[in-house]
Amino acid sequence: MDVSAILSAVNNFVWGPVMLVLLVGTGVFLTVRLKFLPWRNLGYAIRMVFSKRDNHAGDITPFQSLMTALSATIGTGNIVGVATAMVLGGPGALVWMWISAAFGLSTKYGESVLAVKYRETNSVGEMAGGPMYAMKNGIHNSFGRLLAFLFSVFVVLASFGIGNMTQANSIAAALSSSYEIPTWLVGGIITIAAISVLIRGIRSIGLVSSVVVPAMAVFYFFASLVVIAVNFAAVPAGVVEMFRMAFSFDSVAGGIGGSIVASMLTSMRWGVARGVFSNEAGLGSAPIAAAAARTDHASRQGYVNMTGTFFDTMIICMLTGLVIASSGVLGATDSATGKLISGVQLTILAFSTVFGDYGKLIVSIAISLFAFSTILGWEYYGEKALEYLVKQRPVIMAYRILFSLVTFVGATTTLEIVWNFSDTMNGLMIIPNLICLLWLNKDIAKECFDYEEKVVAHEKKGEFIDYQADPADIPAEAYDQSMR
Q: Total structural domains in the chain?
């Protein structure tokens, strides 16, 4: 069996039905375990995103932490992945993306809480946290340290592929096919832009992400709304068709699906898979950014970072899905090959129904911004995972430079085996992370209920509460942990 076949077999498992059931199942368990508080407090969490309370231990503001996490999660999956899911799984796949994201709120909350609770301070005074530290400091045995080691290795390897080369290649391919811009030129620009941001570390990444991510999200949001508004007559029927196909056990076709045929199980598989790939709930990546936030309580940042799943899947992915559904292009075939149009070409076709040739420009800009921001976010993930494995600062600086240079390789070369390998590493991150979440579910629940009682109940009434303001009212263990 050759390498490609082995990687394909592993990928079929780590991104297959069994793993996806475990992912969603963990989300369901945590949602019930936390008495649905992540759902009940979603509005409160969104308000916390824009809170100015950042005078606590940490490297970046809570908002910058969320934007760094979103910079990595809002990527090509929101444009290409949604279109692919709707072709392979039918329009119903979008419904299953929403369902998986709903339970993913609790997963993202839980892993972010553990990241802040068990974070440490490194040799240069920066916060170091994420699932690997929760595994080491929370599980407290050799098994926990083994999980932490494996998770960190998977993150470092995945960062060069999923978080770097594939993103750079997406930018280069989009600009080359649409406007015949040479890939070497695109690669050079990406490399220079990346190294100018990454060489200065998390504060630089957080600052740039806090500008780029909102800007690109607003741009895509309004461009999508224009398409949906123009084609609004088709939206109600489109939504009905999505839910019909999402819960139909028989293969169905018609309506906005055109020639698309998909059963409930097919819709579920592709919807959940692309949803998880897009919002990364359960992957363990976003909590690494959560650990850098200045916050007074692990649960507060858990709520803030939890909203990343809401913004990514329930807003951005939903917009892409409605654009495609309302434009009537789903199920269209390529006149030259006779194959169904999928991926970025389907999204471009949908935008072009309203913007004409400018549809190609809108999607190209969106992909470029989304993919570049993903490169920034994933460098930080890979750096912190490498820092866990190797403490020497020169190695970390070398990683920043190497990571930036690899973007040029990704933009100018097609390395399918490397991409498949990194995709495998990306999926393998899930296994130790889910074990950690389930193992430490009592820690998550304790932080959640403590915060609900001492902070949320008061702040919902408009009363300002600083959890660290009066140490006498805080258990010594919790206070020491929150001040790390």
A: 1
